[in-house]
Design goal:
ImpA N-terminal domain-containing protein, 3 domains, T6SS-assoc_VCA0119, ImpA_N
Length: 512
């Protein structure tokens, strides 16, 4: 089928020429040197590696141009795939599969990266937890011909990977994460007219909010945010402003911890500048409710969950709406947020802009946000540490677990520490297989979440404990068994050492 038909009526239609260019052979031939040191390659990788605020449109454009003009590289094709899925959902997946298939189909000897292990790593990157989360949030809104194109591309990718890419024999060749998504969502008997290429914004909101049970299985952080945003916007559209405010703060603030910083400056990208102009424009039109809705939607944009200036603005806009409970709720929650994470009053975004400007700090001071903060925080921290110590000292494993079950955990970091102690106790009791299962589940649950980026200490401890469990498991199975999760213990050890090196290079050098 001609690409024009596949891209018709999709948000990707304007990119058809760029996609054709990325799929076509290079006019000048493949370069011999590894292109990963080029400025264009580094720029793309740095943008895609951002935890928040990545400019996905820029990644898409730059990656397509790189593949069209500079080199056919599986790493860039992978970065492009992630950006396309994140930005365009299912139609982005279809496009990414087309491009990836064409890159793989180039001369295998000239394809970058050249080393077999690097090629295998590039393909494995497609099946990361981050990609799984993005696919999980993608609506299956393809037309029949698009389903067919995706199916054909993924089959070709699997075949080409099996022929040219060395990989773990226990893992299906190719883009297995996308193949699983296709198998779960593809219509059993697609017919013309089934499916739609409509964007999420064009899907009508039901008369009542859909507040049913979430999908089966644990949600990743990115899936959790995606589902939360849909529900939040539906509540706003139905005028349920207080309910939407409560949902937004539960989703966006519930698992936040104080981010690392140097001299008060964090690595968090600043909120989108144009958003303030949008609020001002809506406010000038004289509709306080509409202006409030514009501002409220920002809670789900990168960086804005940290902005106390936004909270002050929301409270001011809520004052113009005949609902006193809304303004009181926003003010009370902002004060509690500042009390729980007092550093937000002094921290700054990566560009130097404050989380809380002078006006916002004065606004919060009026609620006595800092009253009793220091002692309450210290007492809570001491109590948590004491209860963990009591569980650690308990010689009976069952009773120790019961003590841990009774420990309240207010943050994601505290929940991680409890689970890490469970695994540590199992290792001490020579129950490596139990520790391994606990740690693999914890790894799956938190990998890619903010706690791993902002708390490398917890991440390092997790991977060190998992490495110890895998080593113990490898010894008991004489190196021949396959551990839970489908990986050989030896492979888990190597993966943990690589992850530790990324979080704490000094500690990685000390591993024995």
């Amino acid at each position: 089928m001609e690409p024009e038909a596949l891209f018709e009526s999709t948000d990707l239609a304007p990119m058809l020429a760029a996609v054709r260019g990325a799929c076509a052979p290079l006019a000048t031939g493949q370069p011999d040197e590894d292109p990963r040191y080029r400025d264009s390659f580094v720029d793309i990788k740095q943008e895609i590696d951002k935890l928040q605020g990545a400019d996905l449109g820029r990644v898409v454009q730059a990656s397509l141009a790189f593949l069209a003009d500079e080199a056919k590289d599986l790493r860039i094709a992978g970065y492009l795939a992630l950006a396309l899925v994140a930005r365009f959902g299912a139609s982005g997946l279809m496009t990414a599969a087309l491009v990836y298939r064409s890159v793989l189909a180039q001369d295998a000897d000239s394809l970058h990266p050249r080393k077999p292990v690097q090629r295998a790593a590039a393909v494995a990157w497609l099946n990361s937890a981050r990609m799984d989360a993005l696919l999980g949030a993608a609506a299956p809104d393809l037309r029949p011909e698009q389903w067919q194109s995706l199916d054909e591309s993924l089959e070709a990718i699997a075949r080409l990977c099996a022929e040219h890419i060395q990989s773990d024999a226990d893992e299906p060749a190719g883009w297995s994460a996308a193949t699983r998504w296709l198998e779960e969502h593809r219509p059993a008997d697609p017919t013309p007219g089934a499916g739609s290429a409509a964007s999420p914004a064009s899907v009508p909101v039901p008369d009542a909010p859909i507040l049913g049970p979430p999908p089966k299985g644990d949600l990743s952080q990115e899936q959790f945010l995606a589902h939360g945003r849909v529900l939040h916007d539906a509540l706003l559209d139905q005028g349920l402003l207080l309910q939407a405010a409560a949902l937004a703060r539960a989703v966006r603030w519930g698992a936040l911890n104080e981010p690392p910083h140097e001299n008060g400056v964090t690595r968090i990208a600043p909120p989108r500048e144009g958003a303030w102009t949008e609020i001002d424009g809506a406010a000038r039109d004289g509709d306080a409710r509409e202006a409030y809705v514009v501002a409220a939607r920002l809670m789900f944009e990168p960086g804005f969950q940290w902005s106390l200036d936004l909270q002050q603005r929301l409270a001011e806009l809520a004052a113009g709406i005949p609902d006193a409970a809304l303004k009181d709720y926003i003010e009370g929650e902002a004060a509690l947020f500042a009390r729980r994470l007092p550093a937000v009053l002094t921290l700054h975004f990566a560009d130097g802009g404050p989380f809380a400007g002078e006006s916002a700090r004065a606004w919060l001071a009026g609620f006595d946000a800092q009253r009793g903060r220091g002692q309450a925080h210290t007492d809570a921290g001491d109590s948590f540490a004491q209860r963990l110590s009591e569980a650690r000292a308990e010689p009976d494993l069952g009773r120790a677990f019961a003590l841990l079950d009774a420990v309240p955990a207010a943050t994601a970091r505290e929940r991680c520490r409890i689970d890490l102690l469970r695994a540590e106790l199992c290792l001490g009791a020579k129950r490596a297989h139990v520790a391994y299962g606990l740690l693999m589940e914890l790894k799956r649950r938190v990998e890619g979440m903010q706690v791993m980026e902002w708390d490398p200490e917890v991440g390092t401890q997790l991977y060190e404990s998992l490495r110890r469990a895998a080593i113990a498991l490898r010894k008991t199975s004489n190196g021949n068994g396959v551990a839970q999760g489908g990986m050989h213990p030896g492979a888990v050890v190597e993966e943990c050492e690589r992850l530790i090196a990324g979080l704490n290079p000094t500690r990685a050098l000390e591993l024995v």
